[in-house]
Design a protein that fits this description.
4-stranded mixed β-sheet; globular; alpha/beta
């Protein structure tokens, strides 16, 4: 077994696709409308689905926002340099919600960004 994807419900599909592709540098891998179900799925990632896990962005046509609840944590991305990644995200219009630095009670360097729907994206320095 392997993890295929994680699905996130998004309110503004094009804003979310722009964030994940233009700000975080992912590629839009595939997109499909489901008119009978009134939703669209867009898959984004850093490699083809056959090679690694990706994100499935699901936009329900009749809903523009979601309550994230308190069960969701974050999506984690490995980056070579957390400080440089945060700078690139800011330059591309993204929002950093936790500045880069060591994690509490540890030494791993991390930061957090936030997507247009409020989902947290953790940026972790490679170990």
């Amino acid at each position: 077994m392997r993890i295929l994807h994680t699905m996130l419900r998004v309110g503004d599909l094009e804003a979310s696709v722009a964030f994940y592709t233009q700000v975080l540098g992912m590629t839009e891998l595939r997109r499909k409308d489901y008119p009978e179900g009134r939703f669209t799925n867009v898959f984004v990632g850093y490699q083809p689905e056959s090679e690694g896990a990706v994100l499935e962005l699901t936009c329900n046509w009749d809903q523009s926002s979601y309550d994230l609840g308190d069960g969701y944590g974050h999506v984690a991305l490995a980056v070579d340099d957390v400080y440089a990644a945060c700078e690139r995200i800011r330059e591309r219009g993204g929002r950093i919600t936790r500045e880069p630095g060591p994690m509490k009670h540890g030494t791993t360097v991390l930061a957090f960004a936030q997507d247009p729907d409020g989902y947290k994206i953790e940026l972790l320095g490679r170990h």
